[in-house]
Amino acid sequence: MFSKLNLGVLVTLFATSVYSHMAMVQPCPRLSPNNPLCPAGDPVDYNIKSPIGTSSAASQPLCKTDKKTSKNVETWTAGSTVKVKFRPDGAAHSGGHCQFALSYDGGKTFVVIKDVLKYCFFNGQKYGNTAEVLSYDIQLPSNLPSSNSAVFAWTWINASGNREYYMNCADVAIKGVNGGSYTGKKLLIANYGPGTPVVAEFNGNYESGISLLNSRPNITVNGSGGSSPAAGGGTPASSSSSIAMRATTKTSSAIKASTATCACPCK
């Protein structure tokens, strides 16, 4: 009886860890079991849906890894519309704030190109874990700089549950303005250990965190990887590299050492 009981508990815990949270599936993110282009030397992250940190600690670096995939998974044209899709087997934690962003310096600094605030994964305020929306069309700004080594990021601050920060990244090429620059809001990083702001559980108040999002400074990025605070952009935008460095030295239980290669292209 004891062994059967404990087995049942373990099965329940395993199921909860696997079928929980959310993850991007298109474009194929780094370390995804569905991505055939694993970053060199990195194992598959079979918990790709898990957060990279909580309000108390950062458990993984930004993007889950700072290593690129062996080649870009997408080539996008500035001004076009791209589709971002999410896995259907996750838990949407009553929505929350999603930011979609691009980096031109290898994932150190991100500029936001689209927000889905308050009700991400839902059509309106709703308490529950079953997502209603699993894809978003992202209109790429027409003046994005060209780059063969851009990083696209999806981040999520969940409305209900533990105070967590989710992030998946994909390596993409951008066909845009040669030598150009783009100015937009700096990515908000919250619930990612000491030194980052905490967005409280919403508990029905979907204004939670909105003041932080509204106060994001403007930054200007260019195709060569440079970034700077935009003129009149308010508080200077510091690089995210110092935040990421805290987690790179930690061993994440979510990334399991494995000789397995990534499985098949994302669908």
TrEMBL record:
Which InterPro entries does UniProt cross-reference here?
Answer: Cellulose/chitin-bd_N (IPR004302)
Domain annotation Chitin-binding type-4: ranges: 34-172
Q: Could you tell me which residues belong to the region Disordered?
A: 223-243
According to UniProt, the name of this protein is Chitin-binding type-4 domain-containing protein
Segments of skewed composition (Gly residues) = 223-235
One Pfam short name: LPMO_10
Q: Which domain of life is it from?
A: Eukaryota
Keyword list (alphabetical) reads: Signal
In the UniProt record, the signal sequence range is: 1-20
